[in-house]
Amino acid sequence: MKVTVDRQRCIGAGMCLLTAPAVFDQDEDDGTVVLLDAEPPPGAHEAVREAVQSCPAAAITADDR
């Protein structure tokens, strides 16, 4: 899986961090998404998919390759 984020699109809702904290974080200054792992292990894939679905700004994409 390859994960990408669009920080310009992010509104800082934090759903990604709540759903997949091993893959996402939030910038302390502006609250936008920080990608911690662009190629997470298989055990994190379901949480990443949930984060993609729950992002209100559609700022996260995941390609299952």
N-to-C CA distance:
6 Å
Structural shape: globular
Taken in chain order, the helices and strands follow as EHEEHE
Helix content: 10-25%
| Biggest sheet strand line-up | 1-4
Number of strands: 4
How many whole angstroms does the radius of gyration measure?
10 Å
Structural classification: alpha+beta
Query: How does the major sheet shape up?
Result: 2 strands, antiparallel
Unreliable stretches: none
Strand content: 15-25%
Q: Provide a count of the helices.
A: 2
Report the average pLDDT across residues.
97
Secondary structure: elements and pairs:
Elements (H helix, E strand, L loop, with lengths): L1 E4 L9 H5 L4 E3 L6 E3 L9 H10 L5 E4 L2
Antiparallel strand pairs: 1-4, 2-3
Description:
Helix content is 23%, strand content 22%. The protein is built from two helices and four strands; from the N terminus they run βαββαβ. It has helices at residues 15-19, 45-54; strands spanning 2-5, 24-26, 33-35, 60-63. The strands form two sheets. It has a two-stranded antiparallel sheet with strand order 1-4. The protein has a two-stranded antiparallel sheet with strand order 2-3. β2 (24-26) and β3 (33-35) form a beta hairpin. The mean pLDDT is 97.
